[in-house]
Every structure is written in C-alpha cells, then in structure tokens.
Amino acid sequence: MFPTRSLILTLAATLTCTQALADAAGDVQVTTPYARQVPPGAVASAAFMELNNRGHEDHALVAAASPAAEVVELHEHVMKDGMMQMRPVPRIGIPAGATTRLQPGGYHVMLIHLRQDLASGQTVPLTLTFEDGSKKAVEAPVRRIGAMTKKMH
Asked: Rounded to whole angstroms, how far apart are CA atoms 72 and 61?
C-alpha cells in the first residue's frame, strides 16, 4: 500500500511543479524594452517593449510596477472623434504564438509622478504582472526619442 500511495504523491507533486513552471511569465519573452527620456522635472514618461508569447495559451499583461514612479498604469492611444486620446486599460492581450508590441502611439506602460529624472544611460526597473499572477522583472534602458516636451500626460 505504501508504494502506491508514495507513487501517487510523487506524481501529484510532479504535476504541480510542471503546472507552476508553465505560467504566463515563463511563456512571455520580453524583448527591446526601453523607457522614454523626458526633460528634467517632467512628471510622466512611458515604457515600451515587445511581449512574445511562446506558449500555447493566450495571456495578458494586467499590471506593472516600478520604483521610478508613484503610479504605473497600462495605457493605449486610440483615435476618437478625430482626436488621438490616451486612456488606461485593464489588460493588454498577448495571443498564443504571437507578439504584442508596446510602442509609441499604441499600448504602453505609463510612468506617472516620476520619483527621479529619467536620463539616457539609466535603466528603469519594471515588474510586469500577468493574468495568472506570475511576475517578470524587466530592466528598461532610458532612451531619448524624438522631440521632448515638458508635459507628457
């Protein structure tokens, strides 16, 4: 009786470990992360990246955090009534086997109430949270992109 019970417990533990390894953070590869350089004293910036889902199930980015900002939100730009608007979104979908791009003019991670100036050469630590609660740490180099303005939001 013990060998059978021991075998069942071993199989259950193995399945649990396998399921724990097959999480969204493990399936989603983050490439080309960067944060936008902003002028000294600016209150907001944004981070961009590509989210490559190498898994067989759809996933979603549902939150982000960073010590560089008091508030971090997921945002998108949308055209509404002929005007480009930015708005927060509850999640950013990452379909199985596909890449979701966070880029200027589209989805992005908004960094609000910056705790420090963001200058080229620095990195911004980000923690991405996925729909299953798994997390992935990302280092986003700060880059200068096009003309900079005093206010971004």
From this structure: 13
How much helix, strand and coil, in percent to the nearest 5, is found in the chain?
Answer: 15, 50, 35
Domains delineated in the chain: 25-143 (2.60.40.1890)
**Of the candidates 55, 153, 47, 58, which has an alpha carbon nearest to the alpha carbon of residue 101?**
47
Interior CA angle at 98 toward 74 and 126, to 5°?
Answer: 35
Give 110's strand partners. Answer: 46, 73
- Enter the pTM of the model: 0.80
Q: Is the pLDDT of residue 25 over 90?
A: yes
Look at strands 135-143 and 28-36 and give their pairing. Answer: parallel
- Residue-wise pLDDT for 60-71, tens only, equals 999 999 999 999
